[in-house]
Write a structure and sequence with these properties.
By secondary structure, the chain is α+β, with helices and mostly antiparallel strands. It has nine helices and 20 strands. The strands form six sheets. It has a five-stranded antiparallel β-sheet with strand order 6-7-12-10-11. Strand 8 and strand 9 form a beta hairpin.
Length: 338
Amino acid sequence: MNILQNISLEPYNTFGIAVNARFFIQINHVKELREALELKGYPERFILGGGSNMLLTHNLEALVLHIDLRGKTIVSENDTQVFLKVMAGENWHQLVLWTLERDYGGLENMSLIPGNTGTAPIQNIGAYGVELKDVFEGCEALDTQDGSLRWFTPEECEFGYRDSYFKNRGKGRYILVSVTLKLTKVHHKLNTSYGAIESELARNGVKEPSIKDIAKAVIAIRKSKLPDPEILGNSGSFFKNPVVDGKTFGQFIKKHPDAPHYRVSKDRFKIPAGWLIEQCGFKGKRYGDAGVHSKQALVLVNHGKATGREILALAHKIMDQVRETFAIAIQPEVNIIE
């Protein structure tokens, strides 16, 4: 096991925040993960995946374990479905492309989401009307207390909107090592109603879309709105879209009748956080090297040398202004390491 010291984490987080890890180990096997957790004389462990959904605000006086477990295995299949086990270190978008090449349906709407597969259940990632829970069969996680592997069912994961058991009661105890997905082989369930997918398909002259057509449309839409982290540091959507009750929504829509919104249940409504932020005048604004993306106000960006604390200060400024203007609270979607 190779234990490195004072390693820059700038290449390991999509915001491109320049902080260091006191100790760093690349984990390629579950056995290495167990051994790293049993090491004596080192500071607390910090689990690092694809680095796509976090904001680092300081150097980590920790033993950073970079989860780089790789591999994809078909566990079982029948005429209509395939059950695919994916190790935690596999890049999510590359996985989506892999499934599309084999005509496995279910992930196409989640194309181009940054990060690795192991973090997908933690966030219950989702896009364009589809969430991980819709194709989730279960996941395997290592218990840091005794080193055992535990299987989690969808119910045990307690999925919510960008939320799960692993972000709450199970936070810090379990390390995701693999995810098993339930995908379709025929009769794919197509979801084209959310966002601009239908208009993008129409623009391409597609009347009877395949899962590849939907993925192509999603990729085009995301590229038109979201910056490439390799060019402009970011973590995708920084804020969750707020979901409010009927009373709050009624008061809001009365004042803002043209505001976009989506009904999620009889008495719950989702309001796009990007719209709220844009109405407050933040879209395209820059404060030093910390800024708000010019094409999508939901995305905070690092123009070069912004620190994590500068990004976080901007986030608080936005949240305060949205609350003051609309009486609606928005919350970060990313994990903030303070």
